[in-house]
Structure formats: structure tokens, C-alpha cells
Amino acid sequence: MSVVAGGGARMPEAEGRAAEERAEERAGFAPGVPFALLPFALVSSGETLVGKGCLGLVAEGGEPLGARVRAHLAASAAAQGAAPASPVSGISASGISAPGISAPGISAPSAAGPDMVVGALPYERGAPAHLFQPAELSRSAGRACFAAAFPPPALVRPEPLSPACMRIAAEPPLAAYRAAVAEALARMQASEGAPVGEALRKIVLSRSLRLSSDRPIDASALLRALARDAGVTAFCVPLPPAGPPLAPQMPARALVGATPELLVARQGRAVTSHPLAGSARRWREASADRAAAQALLASDKDRREHGEVVTAILDQLAPHCVALGTPEGTGLTATASMWHLGTRICGRLRRPDLSAIDLAMLLHPTPAVCGTPRAAAARAIAELEGYDRGFYSGAVGWCDGAGDGAWHVALRCAEVAGREARLYAGAGIVPGSDPVSEGEETSAKFAAMLQALGIDEDGRPLTEDGA
Ligand SMILES: C=C(O[C@H]1C=CC=C(C(=O)O)[C@@H]1O)C(=O)O
């Protein structure tokens, strides 16, 4: 379906587009390479990190990723004639300073370079990660450095002169997704007699929407819109262009999204995870919204779906921790569009040498994005989804030379490249799930990205009140 999205005065299409492309060039957004200048960003109401430029990519290779990150940062420090930089301390209300890291708000170039890598981990454990050492880093409590790095449109470019025209194709179509959910349920039922620990108990199935626009999609505007939700960590990870390395005409790519889920954070010996699973869409009308939240809290199906994730994370962390628990138990977590069941897990590491990236690789993929048992669920996902998830349901985050860092599950996101975007959403399937409801749940999860793009799931423009 082809429709017109957005507002603004109309002018002949070719003329309007040429004017917009001139404006993009003035603002440093060359048409076709709109992400060349995009920073890495993790934006939340608690803490914001913005990394600009790239001093080097963490190499691929046979070593575990954590070891390659340590080697990269040690080599970078040695090349600059310095001992590895001192650990980045915890963030305070006034922000922090460390080598290559500026005070909140303003990025200051550093000769030494930040003692940190940032980037994205793919869903497939064997696929290449995309981690790099930024040239400059800003970090702030709250969002101060976000506003500086991603200024509102009035400061860098005029509003679009004509509305964008966007087409959406569901891949797989909703009916095929429901059929895959039914097949997942059948496989779980068939495995019921399997030996203890081998029966399939949960499979997370996703679907995607392919979007094409008549002009480059503005990833900065998307990020700004997503970051308005106080319940998420909005992110932007610039990715290398897809396709052959010597294909300069390929548009650069970015992973842009708004996740509510913390895979793992490490600060010193303190380790935290905040897994989510079990979901309900939110409603505008307050009593309907409250009823949806209460029904979610009381739902046996959602509690089982959630319990699989908490148990798996506790089991994986336990051998590495001297203390581990869920101090607040399971409760509700809200984004602007979704309710989730969430459980904060806190532990104290036995050894100080297990870094944030080691911990992320230990836990990923949790049953929030894969299933239980992990290997059998991963096989079912590969067969039933039939596409490569790329970085969706992997993780985005950072790790410094001291091993501290935070990795967020890459959810409610899109891979954006030039005029194309691919959006993803999934749902956990357990015995008792219903294919139609799970399809509706994925639609509800698409809402955050679609609202930021100003369209509905069919590509139709949203009205002023977001309906
Ligand atoms: C897989 C997704 O969400 C996960 C995280 C929270 C709740 C989930 C659920 O209720 O199914 C999923 O496990 C997604 O948003 O694509």
C-alpha cells in the first residue's frame, strides 16, 4: 500500500524532494548516506551515553568476544603510550569524567581516546558483533548530552517540505506468523513426554515489517521521537553498510530502537539484570489500562513465560556470584505503549575479572528472546521464522577497560538504511498461548517504532492524536 505520511504544506513532489535533499546536504546529511555522521547513543532518564566517530573496530577472530575487547582496549592504550586508563567510576548526579570522557553535555575530543567500546551484539551467537571504540564520548546523568548531540530539527534542518510516502510489507504476513505460533505450540505439545529438561517449554517467535520510503529515513528524528518515552532506553548504533565492502553506493545502516529490557549491567562487583517477559498493550482510558495491568499480573500463562527468563538468568549467574537475589520480586514495568512483567536481579560477582561483555555473552540469548531449553528453542526459531534476525533481539551497549558496562536487549527496533527500514517484534510462546493474541501482541510492540515514524502498521499516516 502506498500512502502519504506526515503533515506540512504540499509542493510538486520532485521539487519538494530536491529542496529537502539540499537542506540535508547543508545539515551534513548527504542523501543516500544519512548515517555517516550519526553518533552511537544510549538514552535513558537515568543515564545517557553518546559516542562520536570511530577509533577502531574490535576485530573478529577465534578468541571469545570479552577477550578481544580487553585486547583491543589494551592495544589502544599501549599505542597511545599510556597504561590502560583507570576504571570509569560510577555515574553521579553531576556526571563523570574519565580519559576521553567529557563532563555531561559537551563532547570534548581526547588525544587518548575513551577506554571503552560501544556497539551491538547479534542475536546469533556465532555471527559477527559490531563493536568499536568511539573517538569521543559524552556521558551524563539524565539526558543532557543527548540534546547536545541530537539537536532538535529547528537547529539543523527545516521541517520536511512535503510528507513522506511510505510502503509497508509484513514479512511474514500476519496469517503466516499465526501459523508459525500454532506450529510452535504443536511442537511443545509433542515434546511433552521428553526426558526432564528436554521438553520444549517456551519459544519466542518474531515477525518483521519492511518499510520503504520515498526519501532517506531520518534516524536522528526517529531516535528523538523514541527517546520521549521515559520507560525505555532509546538507542542508535551506526552499522557498516550491508553488502560487499567495495560498494560505496550502499547506504550506511543504523540500528535504532527503544528497549525496556536490561540484559546485564556490571559496576565493580555489582551485577544487575532486569528481564521482562509477559506483556499486555496499554490503553488510553485509565480504567482499561489499569485492568490490563492487573490481568497481566494475575495471568498464569504470562507468569510461566516470565519465570522461564528469571530462572535461566539466576541459573547462569549463580556459579559466578557470592550473593544473588530478586529483592523486589516480580512486578509491572511500563513503557508508553506496553505493560510487562519484570524482575530485577541483583548479584555480587565472585571474581572481578568477569566483564560486562563476558556477562552479556554468558546470558544471551535469554528465554526473553529465544526459549527453553535454549538449543531446542533456537532450532525451532530458525525453522519457523525463516529469516536472519540480525541485531534484533541481540544487545546494544558498552564495556570499558575496567570491565564495567551495560547491555540492553535490542528490542522495539528497526534496522534503517537509506530509504528502507526493517522493524521487528516478537512474543514468547508457551503452552496456553493463543496464535491470534500473540499476533496482536507483536502489533502492539510495533506501535512504539511506528508512532515514531508517524504511521500505522499498514503504512497509513497517524492522525494528530496518534490514532
Ligand atoms: C521479543 C520481544 O519482547 C520480549 C521482551 C519482553 C516481553 C516479551 C513477551 O512478553 O513476549 C518478549 O519476551 C520483542 O519486543 O520483540
What characteristics describe this protein?
single chain, 467 residues, alpha+beta, Anthranilate synthase, twelve-stranded mixed beta sheet, 24 strands, 29% helix, 29% strand, globular, isochorismate synthase activity, isochorismate synthase, IsoChor_synthase, ADC_synthase
Please tell me about this protein's structure.
This protein has 467 residues and is an alpha+beta fold. It has one domain: Anthranilate synthase, CATH 3.60.120. Helices cover 29% and strands 29% of the residues. The protein has 11 helices and 24 strands. Strands 1, 2, 3, 5, 8, 9, 10, 11, 12, 20, 23 and 24 form a 12-stranded mixed beta sheet that branches. Strands 4-7-6-21-22-13-14-19-16 form a 9-stranded antiparallel beta sheet, with helices on one face. The longest helix is centred in the C-terminal third of the chain and has 19 residues, at 435-453. The chain is globular and about 60 Å long. Residues 1-36 and 83-111 have low confidence and may be disordered. Ligand ISC binds at residues 204, 206, 261, 276-279, 340, 368-369, 393, 411-412, 425-428, 445.
List the helices and strands and how they pair.
Layout (H helix, E strand, L loop, with lengths): L1 E4 L7 H14 L13 E4 L3 E6 L3 E2 L7 H15 L21 E2 L13 E6 L8 E4 L2 E6 L2 H6 L3 H4 L7 E8 L2 H17 L11 E12 L5 H8 L6 E7 L13 E7 L2 E6 L2 E5 L1 E6 L4 H13 L1 H18 L3 E5 L4 E5 L3 E6 L1 E5 L6 H8 L7 E2 L1 H12 L9 E6 L4 E5 L3 E5 L2 E10 L5 H19 L14
Parallel strand pairs: 5-8
Antiparallel strand pairs: 1-9, 2-3, 2-11, 3-8, 4-7, 6-7, 6-21, 9-10, 10-20, 10-24, 11-12, 12-23, 13-14, 13-22, 14-19, 15-18, 16-19, 17-18, 21-22, 23-24
Helix pairs in contact: 2-9, 5-11, 6-11
Organism: Ancylobacter amanitiformis
Catalytic activity: chorismate = isochorismate
Keywords: Isomerase
